[in-house]
Design brief:
Elements lengths: L11 H4 L8 E5 L3 E2 L8 E2 L13 E2 L6 E4 L2 H17 L9 H10 L4 E4 L4 E2 L1 E7 L29 E11 L4 E9 L27 E2 L3 E5 L8 H11 L5 H7 L5 E3 L21 E8 L15 H5 L21 E7 L8 E4 L1
Antiparallel strand pairs: 1-12, 1-13, 2-11, 3-8, 3-11, 4-7, 5-6, 8-9, 9-10, 13-14, 14-15, 15-16
The structure holds zinc ion (2 copies).
């Protein structure tokens, strides 16, 4: 089933024509629980990886042990909670003693778990260029090659994102690794990739999801507008329940491109960690796909989102990834070279 963002309640460029040139295309990925295969675009699914290419690891997280969680125990606990909430009445969850044991094994603080050598990275996103929608319109500043929506090098058609499932000191985010490839060159794929024995945060283990990419148009977050325009937008949205910020500017959820949402901090100048050159938004990893107002909830999900009662995971949290206290992680790529280290920002 495709996913369709409902029409915006207002065409903001009618109110503020000066926003029109600031329009950017984003591709909402709309991850939803599923069983993606190697040949599918996915979050938390298997990657098309050459059998003879070493699987990357994180040298900063090598053995002999780490404080954290066992991925399979996290999966078991999620399964038990999903089943428990599915049969729960109202807001009270009742687990059998065996189920309680499975959930408690994961615990809240983690425990010492042996790890032999650098932690193998976790597969987070796989995106085939063919699964992107065909570009529509030519609004604003298009930031893609070939005039299409593919955000990567012209000689690649597959993006793979992996991460080390531990907070890395400087930014308290899992450290990502981007791999751009040509799918046809993979040859024999790796059938069983190595996985980490321990993860530093159970919120960094993506639940397997299939994707439903959809093109949307975004405008800058209020923080990113020029002072004078920002003030006029603020005056306009003040009696309208922050309609610009919540419904008209930046889409929530996992996506490619677009604008940063700058939810809790002011924008700062950003540059490529390698060459100090300009960077552009590549990928946003979000803790939720829509917020309480559901302005961005796809029409296909509206009934489930509006239904009373508790389900696990909640419809707006299909990947079960949480960044910080429900924030987003934006990954920026260098405008000069796709080979440069991506910049990661919590917003
Ligand atoms: Zn690491
Ligand atoms: Zn660079």
């Amino acid at each position: 089933m495709p996913r369709t963002t409902p029409p915006r309640p207002v065409d903001i460029t009618q109110e503020f024509p000066e926003l029109a040139p600031l329009a950017r295309t984003a591709v909402r990925l709309h991850p939803r629980p599923g069983q993606p295969a190697v040949s599918d675009s996915s979050v938390g699914g298997p990657l098309l990886w050459p059998r003879d290419e070493p699987w990357p690891g994180c040298p900063e997280h090598a053995g002999p042990w780490h404080l954290g969680y066992v991925p399979d125990e996290v999966r078991d606990s999620r399964r038990v909670l999903t089943a428990g909430w599915a049969r729960a009445e109202g807001n009270s969850l009742t687990l059998t003693p065996q189920e309680r044991e499975v959930v408690d094994r994961v615990g809240c603080t983690g425990r010492r778990i042996p790890q032999d050598g650098p932690i193998p990275l976790l597969a987070v996103v796989q995106l085939y260029a063919r699964d992107l929608p065909a570009a529509e319109g030519a609004e604003g500043t298009e930031r893609t090659v070939s005039g299409g929506l593919w955000p990567g090098p012209e000689d690649a058609d597959l993006l793979q994102v992996l991460w080390c499932p531990f907070d890395h000191d400087e930014d308290c985010l899992p450290r990502v690794r981007l791999v751009w490839r040509r799918a046809a060159e993979v040859g024999t794929p790796l059938s069983t990739p190595p996985g980490p024995s321990v993860i530093g945060d159970d919120n960094y283990l993506p639940a397997p999801c299939v994707l439903h990419p959809e093109q949307v148009t975004e405008y800058p977050a209020p923080h990113e507008l020029a002072e004078e325009l920002a003030e006029r937008v603020r005056d306009w949205e003040e009696p309208r329940d922050h309609l610009y910020q919540d419904a008209l500017s930046v889409a929530p959820g996992w996506k490619l491109g677009g604008w940063g949402n700058w939810s809790f901090s002011d924008p700062w100048p950003m540059e490529c960690p390698d060459c100090k050159g300009p960077v552009r938004p590549l990928l946003t990893v979000d803790s939720g796909e829509w917020d309480n107002e559901r302005y961005w909830c796809p029409v296909e999900d509206e009934a489930a989102a509006a239904a009373p009662g508790v389900v696990h995971p909640q419809p707006q949290e299909p990947t079960q990834i949480t960044i910080g206290r429900g924030y987003t992680m934006q990954v920026y790529s260098c405008e000069r070279s796709f080979g440069h280290t991506p910049l990661q920002v919590m917003q």
